[in-house]
Specification:
Blueprint: H1 4-14, E1 18-20, E2 26-27, E3 33-34, E4 36-38, H2 47-64, E5 70-74, H3 77-89, E6 93-96, E7 109-110, E8 118-126, H4 130-141, E9 145-154, H5 158-166, E10 171-176, H6 177-186, H7 194-203
Helix pairs in contact: 1-2, 1-6, 2-3, 6-7
Length: 212
């Protein structure tokens, strides 16, 4: 196992942060039946995995966004990852609320951010990318130069890819569904024949043909 994508996938599987259950699908809030369930918050309570994730995020930022001046976490899942990674890198951080506060200074963006600041957004999971793009747009409205996004995991769904392209922002994820199903089959989390079916779910989440 040589790639970061595979190492992260194996780590997430080992703590149940990304769990594959193709024969008993999970039901998403949308009603879609899914063979995969993600809860990357569990990395925070697994010190070895947490260290691997945060150091890998720092390395990705250094590689793809060397001009970064500040990290901004998404609310709420990205906040802790942004804070820990910022500590590793010696950078300031803040986070973007889902909506502005209805009291006090009515902030949506928390943390002191100067106009023109070169910012990287830290997210835990990219699916259809709607929420992270809202964060990017909020930062741009406040004068930030958003260099891009780093995230722990992405499904690689076409809708998400299209939205990121339309928003003119790039995302670099530590791992993805392709690496995950490969590692899951190798490490006996799923039967090898389920790899293609899970990827078929990604191609068309509303079509239950993959379950047949």
């Amino acid at each position: 196992m040589n790639t970061t994508e595979e190492k992260i996938a194996s780590a997430l599987l080992s703590i149940g942060a990304v769990f594959l259950r193709p024969e008993q699908p999970f039901t998403w809030a949308s009603g879609i039946k899914s063979p995969i369930y993600c809860d990357n918050r569990l990395t925070l309570s697994a010190p070895k995995v947490r260290t691997l994730v945060e150091q890998s995020l720092a390395e990705a930022i250094q590689q793809y966004y060397p001009a970064c001046e500040m990290l901004m976490g998404t609310s709420t899942a990205g906040i802790a990852h942004a804070a820990i990674t910022a500590e590793i890198m010696g950078l300031p951080m803040g986070y973007v609320r889902g909506a502005a506060k209805d009291h006090g200074r009515a902030n949506r963006i928390e943390g002191k951010m100067e106009k023109g600041c070169k910012v990287v957004v830290v997210e835990d999971l990219i699916s259809t990318a709607g929420s992270v793009i809202e964060v990017v747009e909020a930062l741009r409205e406040e004068g930030a130069e958003v260099l891009g996004i780093v995230s722990i995991f992405t499904y690689g769904m076409q809708k998400g890819l299209d939205r990121l392209a339309a928003a003119k922002v790039e995302n670099h994820s530590l791992s993805n569904l392709d690496a995950l199903v490969e590692v899951a089959a190798r490490e006996n989390y799923i039967a090898p024949e389920w790899k293609d079916r899970i990827l078929a779910f990604r191609a068309n989440p509303s079509d239950m043909g993959w379950l047949a």
